[in-house]
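Model the whole thing, not chain by chain.
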Amino acid sequence: MIIATIIRDVQLLLRDRGALLSMFALPLVFMGAFGFMFAGADDEDDNESGVRFVLALQHGDAPNESAARILEAVRATKGLEIRRCAQRSELDQLVAEGGADAGVVIPDQPDVNGKSPIVFVADPALSTAEAGMLQGTLLTAIYRGWYFTKYAAFIDEQQETREVDGLVRNEAPATMRKKREHMDSFQVSVPGNAVLFIFFLSSAIALSFVEDRRSGMWRRLHSLPVPAAALLIARLVPWFVIGMLQMLFLFGMAVLLFGMQISGSIPALVVLTAALVLAATTLGFLMASFGGSEKQVSAISTIVVLVMALLSGCMFPRFLMPLGLRQLGLAFPHGWALDGYKDILIREGTTIADISAPCLALLVMSAVFTLLALLLSRRLRVR
Amino acid sequence: MIETRSLGRDYGPQVALHALDLHVPRGSFFGVLGPNGAGKSTLIQILCGVLAPSRGTAHVGGHDVVLDGLAARRLTGLVPQEIALHEELTPRQNLQFFGRLYGLRAEALESAVARALALADLTPRAHEPVQRMSGGMKRRLNIAMGTLHSPQLLVCDEPTVGVDPQSRAHIFDCLRTMNAAGTTILYTTHYMEEVEALCPSVAIIDHGRLMCSGPLAALLAAHAPAGLALVVQGNAERALAAVRPFGTAHIKTSSASETNIVLDAAVPLAPLAAALADAGTPLTAASHIVSNLEQVFLKLTGRALRDNA
């Protein structure tokens, strides 16, 4: 009896592609993605795995020995892609526009005690973890160069750290909005999780369409004296409203329960959220258009939602991923939404105009999802 | 009420309907029969505006289902084969939802909901979630949903699958009442006895083609005439030769003591018995063979299984 049951269950499993994907493919995707994300961060042998940070670099043409050593050490740092800037203003602009993750200005004669410091330029809205990893990478190179000059050999750790006080000064690009004085961890964790979970709405939408097709509701609805477009809108609008309520609840509770700060404008938060929920709603429509059984749609939509969230930085800061993965994250709505929320929650005075790029990207993705869904729906024999 | 001209529908390379010409008079109770995959559902979906035809035309109440689809759909109520209800909601909530989609508001909506609940005999259970109800109750509600807007045409796609005899009888009564009030009913089913009981007119479709259409009595007479089952003694071949002048006949079974002969004609027994006696094969028993729709159906559509439909 046990053998018969085993055979039956294996046969059922082999026919359940959704379950197979969840059991075997999804863990592989997660393993691979996390492996690539951490590549180069901890594994000394794997520093060839690609670019982690883009660094804007400005320096003079007559560096002294210290400056030359530091430059050499920075250039030799693995995982850095360096873009040389002629002027400080150019460096600031590159960092402010996201063309570089940070900038370093190395004077010809760097010195300690703030007399002629090396300037480290970064987005002030970086989280402690993000800034720490970036600074860790760069300061190691800078101090290495400095110590080489002073002692003609690299002195490992702790050695006379007082000697480098004032060697590096942190600054923000002049044009970037400042973050609030006290940044809280919820400003990072809340949008990450809210964006992750709003896309489970897509899964619910896809399942509701599949259920309608299975139950005959689809035929009944399409037999009504209502234009097909109106019917579709009527099917999606309630989900959009539910999504907005979900986000309102999540952000509201984050403010009330966790004391999360919202540094930018509330209208900007609402507009970005509306664009995000629209993307989630239309993605649900797209997933429904592929057809399939409830089990298949449930499993596949969950996988899609989780993988998109993973690659877009909902579970792990995108800033800390290798450059290629960071760019891949912007192929999904999650990545754009997280960028927008970061601006609204962390940077003071962020307005709708400041988040126009993420909003536009989300709207374009929504349009693409809708178009694809309409094309695929024709295959499902609907008028 | 329904008029199709050269109506066709393809699914990729597969032709589901071939140039179908169908006429369903206003106020009729019209049965549509066909094996699995014959094209019944495709026809229904085109008439209800769910599917667009690939060629030809279909009119409901004079409105082209493609060019004037909204007007055609306003006249039509669909009872799908599946129980298309929101199981978590109550019958009243289900009816209110669809009533609003039909454009009913306020008193008109409440009146239509009450009428539909009464039709389904579910007024006492109007506030109970559908998921707690029996299959028969769900089926009745499924039908009532299609009648909310008092359609001129009610399209029923196998509406009695899996219901108990009491619910079936109730459904039949409801449909007869609606038909008597002037609603045209297009009824598809696999149960021949349902069509015989309900539908004075019938069409049989197979492989996407109309095999026959018209009054049930005329179809029976044309395709499955009544006959006689005879039991005779003596030589089987001589008995058959004696019967043949009265109509087409064949031996069904034969043994040493008696022979069973089927005569495809309902002729008076006296001359037949005399002819058999003259041949030395006396008639010992005779019974009428009553023709039925199943015989017509199997004759026109064959006995081959349609598992791959």
